[in-house]
Automatic annotation (TrEMBL):
InterPro entries: CRAL-TRIO_dom, CRAL-TRIO_dom_sf, CRAL/TRIO_N_dom, CRAL/TRIO_N_dom_sf, Sfh5. Its main location: cytoplasm. The keyword Iron applies. It is found in: Cytoplasm; Endoplasmic reticulum membrane; Microsome membrane. Pfam families: CRAL_TRIO (PF00650). This is Phosphatidylinositol transfer protein SFH5. Residues 302-312 have a biased composition (Polar residues). The keyword Mitochondrion does not apply. It catalyses: a 1,2-diacyl-sn-glycero-3-phospho-(1D-myo-inositol)(in) = a 1,2-diacyl-sn-glycero-3-phospho-(1D-myo-inositol)(out). One of its GO terms (cellular component) is cytosol. It is a peripheral membrane protein. Belongs to the SFH5 family. It comes from Metschnikowia pulcherrima.
Length: 325
């Protein structure tokens, strides 16, 4: 019995996956892609070392969090501050294998207005940079940065094929060029810790590799300390790679990267990483996501949940929702 195609399972693992599948069957299973569902449930099983009860508990917590946080809105509807959009980008190297195709880039050097970007979502910022309160019932959970980062994560996942062993996980790059640990904004530190927890709790087995590049020496020492003391799990540490430079050509191919990431070699086809950005119009909203988001906005009112610019993200589903309200 073959339940998944991304990897081979033992008889015992297959039995446990079937048990988890049976516990999560829905009547009619409308809009359910069975193959994708099985692959996602497997990720929860792997994350809990094939403990079915623990996997079920983790799954329920994730579904509750997704509902409360409104992740689909963050990904496909809300449009955020232009400063945030310069801090991250998604690339899709279609010819790459071994889960090095889809990559999210986190560019911390582009952080310009931390007080604004790390404020609670739905809260404006005055000219002097202080928070300007807004009606609480119109505010969505989390900071603007967290909602933007979760949205970036969700859109990158829509480019994966969970049934394909070469494209069922995404890579991440965290670029700390010109970022000092001593001058790092407290909001940025807090946001980083929050994102680590949110992603760890709710996105199991979706990371192929995480690169920390152009890392200050102090931060490199801290990573070595965590590794030595066992504060990070071996499986997680194995996916981390820390560099005090920015050359990623051996991982993603020099022809796929701009000068700052391919060892200093100019690439006229890729002047900067944003030249490779996957546009919103190139990202297809999953069928179930489109249906749920339309239902959500029908209940809450689309105008209340727009990004701080007052406009929506340029996705097909956002345009449909806006046109109907």
């Amino acid at each position: 019995m073959t339940l998944v195609s991304s990897q081979e399972l033992t008889v015992e693992q297959t039995t446990k996956l079937q048990e988890l599948i049976d516990a999560n069957r829905a009547e009619g299973e409308e809009h359910v892609d069975v193959a994708v569902r099985n692959e996602i449930l497997l990720k929860f099983l792997i994350a809990t070392e094939y403990d079915v009860a623990a996997a079920q508990e983790k799954l329920v917590k994730t579904l509750n969090w997704r509902h409360k946080f409104q992740v689909l809105s963050a990904a496909y509807y809300e449009k955020f501050d232009a400063g945030l959009e310069k801090m991250g980008v998604i690339t899709d190297y279609k010819s790459n294998v071994d889960n090095f195709r889809v990559v999210t880039w986190n560019l911390y050097a582009n952080l310009k207005n931390p007080k604004k970007l790390f404020a609670k979502y739905g809260v404006g910022v005055t000219k002097d940079g202080s928070a300007a309160p807004q009606a609480e019932d119109k505010a969505l959970p989390g900071t603007m940065f967290l909602r933007w980062r979760v949205g970036l994560k969700e859109r990158s996942l829509s480019l994966l094929d969970f049934t394909n062993k070469d494209n069922c996980k995404a890579a991440q790059v965290h670029d700390y060029y010109n970022v000092s640990m001593f001058r790092m904004d407290p909001g940025m530190k807090a946001a980083t810790n929050e994102i680590i927890k949110v992603f760890g709790d709710n996105y199991p087995e979706l990371l192929s590799k995480k690169y920390f590049i152009n890392v200050p020496l102090l931060m490199g020492w801290m990573f070595t300390f965590f590794k030595a003391t066992g504060l990070m799990g071996a499986a997680t540490l194995k996916k981390f790679e820390m560099q005090n430079h920015g050359d990623l050509s051996s991982s993603f191919g020099k022809d796929n990267l701009p000068k700052e990431y391919n060892g200093g070699n100019a690439n006229e086809n890729v002047p900067d990483i944003f030249a490779l950005a996957v546009a919103d119009s190139q990202i297809s909203v999953p069928e179930y996501g489109s249906i749920l988001l339309k239902k959500l906005k029908g209940k809450t009112g689309a105008q209340e949940n727009q990004g701080t610019t007052g406009t929506t993200r340029e996705t097909e589903v956002a345009e449909e929702i806006t046109a109907s309200t």
